[in-house]
Design a protein that fits this description.
Length: 571
């Protein structure tokens, strides 16, 4: 005898009262053919098992994480409804006046928004900066001071319209949209209304860009909907936009993030499919999502470090009872005659060594400097090599490789009387240009055959400094540093992890970093390195920005020259 739960039977009986006989027959013998009501039941659309509707709006996340689209109801709302989404106080065009909708993303589509500098920050810190939940005050994309620090800052950039910071091709498209009388021009960004609306309106106004709608992400939608993500917000807004301006036969979306490009393509395809099924006259709607190649930029390095220091300080003021406090630490990789990034690029381009492609998966480009010591600089190093910040010029006389595992440039000082110092025995002055996956930097000392420079000898400028990176981590925790494989010739060169609040006077210009690329944080605030140890060190009662300000010789304000080297190296 077949068994069907009584709850399901009662539901079926209410849905299909004329099929009571068929329902009863299910308790006796299996029917040779399925009852008619069952075939009707299986043709019913099934809702996703995990749907999170937004109050009265018939839409929300499906089990796959996609936003479920509301069937179009052209008469439900007027353009006044869309004004609730907009950060501008202006009336919108009538429904019948709009035949085209052009939607532009802001960050790295219209505007070249700055990203964290991978040459300054440790990989784990790059992930922390991009994480909204790591800082109590919000992360890189949620703190308006980062965007306001673009270029020379708001006060200097606004009069000149942030010249050089816009994607000029997209600006031209916006201007064409503005000239098209039947087009609705929309700026759509996932930045928050509360934090960024005044700043972004000032920025687009300075560029003389006139949008009908400037929509930023609110905490809740017009009907009280819970905004779960940027794409959820953009899909919800776009759905309302298409539902209200139902006479539009063209929609174009300009977006830089590949994930969002694919999401919008699916969204618009599903929108057309669903509304055509409901016999709504949108068959002629042409939808196009244009992928804009990201044009990101960097902040001034001194300004970037200062703004992150302020974020740390604000976080430390917010956390309750002093728990979960953050600090910025500096970890030294080595001391050397370091090249600025622009000098490194010129060196690699001038030598133009065959096989050293920038996208080679097994070869890592280097060219950062000439090693003095594989550790932080101490008094012995500084006595022999010279003080930090000393500028030394070298002539590049040739290049060579060792078994195609490591490539290097041979150099000598321009000043014949200058003695190049190294804490390592038998160490010739070379610049390691690239390393294969199975190679070692020390193998550069084994090169015996040198090729001439194609364009003749040329000069590179270096500066005595510590190659280092900064990391934001929990106060009181430090990553364990491994002993250097290079034996020192003299002096005590024990590797050390130097917090900003323990800088010596001859080290106050630290803060350089090695490029490590971007990577999501896969650990807690202690950093991505699984090896951590807690050390007893003086508690920092001020923390953050003031932790950097404090000096061994006493507290003092941070002056621009404190990070002058950082500015010169990564400008």
């Amino acid at each position: 005898m077949s068994y069907i739960p009584h709850t399901l039977l009662n539901l079926l009986a209410r849905l299909y009262p004329s099929s009571k006989a068929s329902l009863s027959s299910l308790f006796t013998a299996p029917p040779t053919t399925p009852p008619a009501f069952l075939s009707q039941l299986f043709r019913l659309p099934l809702a996703p098992t995990a749907m999170y509707p937004s109050n009265n709006r018939p839409g929300g996340y499906s089990s796959s994480g996609a936003y479920e689209i509301t069937p179009m109801r052209p008469t439900e709302h007027s353009p006044t409804w869309l004004e609730k989404w907009s950060a501008q106080d202006r009336p919108l065009p009538e429904k019948t006046a709009i035949k085209a909708i052009h939607v532009y993303d802001f960050d790295n589509t219209l505007f070249k928004s700055p990203l964290p500098n991978a040459k300054i920050w440790h990989t784990s810190t790059l992930g922390h900066l991009m994480n909204q939940d790591f800082f109590k005050s919000g992360g890189w994309w949620h703190d308006s001071r980062i965007l306001a620090a673009t270029g020379a800052g708001v006060e200097a950039e606004e009069p000149r319209g942030w010249e050089g910071w816009w994607n000029q091709q997209v600006v031209s498209l916006v201007e064409l949209s503005m000239q098209q009388k039947d087009a609705l021009t929309v700026l759509l960004t996932g930045r928050s209304v509360a934090g960024f609306a005044p700043l972004i309106k000032r920025m687009v106004a300075s560029k003389k860009l006139d949008f009908d709608i400037i929509a930023l992400k609110p905490q809740r939608g017009p009907a009280g909907e819970n905004i779960k993500s940027t794409f959820y917000f953009k899909s919800m807004f776009l759905n309302d936009l298409l539902n209200i301006y139902s006479h539009a036969d063209e929609v174009k979306v300009y977006e830089d993030r590949e994930k969002h490009v694919k999401g919008f393509q699916k969204f618009l395809k599903d929108y057309n499919r669903i509304n055509c099924q409901n016999n709504v006259p949108r068959i002629g709607l042409t939808a196009d999502v244009i992928h804009i190649v990201e044009e990101s930029t960097l902040l001034d390095p001194v300004a970037e470090v200062r703004e992150v220091l302020k974020m740390v300080e604000e976080h430390n003021h917010i956390v309750p009872g002093g728990t979960g406090r953050l600090v910025i630490n500096k970890t030294v990789n080595y001391t050397g005659y370091l090249l600025a990034p622009a000098t490194t690029s010129r060196l690699l381009n001038t030598l133009n060594i065959p096989g050293l492609g920038r996208n080679h998966k097994d070869i890592r480009l280097n060219g950062t400097g000439i090693m003095i010591s594989p550790r932080a600089a101490d008094s012995q190093v500084l006595i022999n090599a010279g003080p930090l910040g000393t500028v030394v010029e070298f002539v590049v006389t040739g290049w060579g490789h060792f078994e195609n595992k490591v490539w290097a440039a041979l150099v000598r000082p321009v000043d014949p009387n200058f003695k190049v110092y190294s804490a390592l025995d038998s160490h010739r002055p070379v610049i390691v240009l690239a390393i294969r996956r199975d190679g070692k930097p020390s193998d550069a000392q084994k090169i015996t055959t040198w090729q001439q420079v194609p364009t003749g000898n040329f000069v590179v400028k270096t500066m005595i400094a510590e190659k280092a990176y900064l990391r934001v981590e929990d106060e009181g925790y430090q990553p364990e540093e491994k002993p250097s494989p290079h034996p020192s010739r003299r002096g005590n060169f024990q590797g050390r992890h130097v917090p900003y609040n323990q800088f010596g006077s001859n080290r106050s210009r630290g803060g350089r970093g090695r490029g490590r690329g971007y990577g999501a944080s896969n650990a807690s605030r202690k950093g991505a390195n699984p090896e951590h140890r807690q050390e007893s060190r003086p508690a920092d009662k001020n923390g953050g920005y003031h932790a950097y300000e404090r000096h061994q010789q006493g507290a003092r304000p941070v002056e621009p020259q404190d990070m002058q080297f950082l500015s010169e190296m990564y400008e």
